[in-house]
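Annex B.
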Amino acid sequence: SDPILEVRNLHVNFDTHEGTAEVINGVDFTIEQGETAALVGETGCGKSVTVKSLMGLLPSATIPEGEIIYKGQNMLELSESEIHARRGREMSMIMQDPMTSLNPVLTVGEQMVDVLKWQGQPRMSLTEWLRDKLKSGSEAEYRQRAVEMLSEVEISAPERVFESYPVELSGGMRQRVLIAIALLSEPDFLIADEPGTALDVTTEEKVLDLLDELVEERDTSVLYITHDLGVAREVSDYINVMYAGEIVEQAPTADLFADPHHPYTRGLLRSIPTLATGIGEGIEGHLPDYTDPPRACRFADRCPHAEPECRETYPYPREVESDHNAACHLFDGPPAHERHVDLGAE
Ligand code: SF4
Ligand code: MG
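Nickel import system ATP-binding protein NikD: predicted structure tokens.
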């Protein structure tokens, strides 16, 4: 079957006082139907910007090039209202911070019922809908559906939680509520932005296991966003490693761990805390300035293998093994994607 999502040569720019920041610089990745993929990289690498462009939530950015093909349709060619119609229904999102994502002045139940009612209004954003408060359907049905969903996320007193305000719940409980809300519309595609990161490790693990089960049952396609390669290994079938707005390596999860290629991926692997010591080695240095990144390879300032060539010739992604791509001069193979990157006048 066709992939549910194909991102092709995506570029996202922001205008800043220092000039144009090329925050996403030619990103390609694919999510197959029913697959769980991960987008991994350190904070500031462009994960969230990628996600926001998928959701059509980047009003201040320009997208000079690229395609975001969802179920065969380029999202970048859709009107605002057509995007609204998909966002939150077909495509749903779990945010990383349950405290700021839930409305503190409404009970859990009120928020869930609002989402269910809004789903009957195909041409409106949730905000527009809430403004208009259009009502349809029966209150009792909505309540029943919301309570069912709360028990599906293994909340043991769903009726009580339905009546609760977010502040009355624990962090783990709030995260479960957010999962319940994201799944209310039975989305085909779910983006999970660092779910559980705000929680302690044990609770995070439980939340990830639960989410894993729920999406498996529903055959939902998922994109996990995480800075933690260890988490990506637990939850995903396929991993895309992102550095400074580019995908530097992508492979099925098992292959990536068995045979990591790119120096950045190897660095990330070393930074996963080991069981024995509980600590990992971080990668020296920091992300480049997006208004003036190193020419050619954006990782050159931090790479232990950097050669002059790395600043001269763009490291196009190469297919280093079947379905396994790496963008680094150390590795050769056929081009992974058809693409041209303009490095300015030579
Ligand atoms: Fe390092 Fe060069 Fe590979 Fe970039 S292209 S990751 S600088 S070896
Ligand atoms: Mg983020």
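Residues 263, 297, 299-300, 303, 305-306, 310, 315, 328-330 surround iron/sulfur cluster (ligand 1) (CB under 6 Å). The radius of gyration is 21 Å. Further annotation is deferred to the next reporting cycle.
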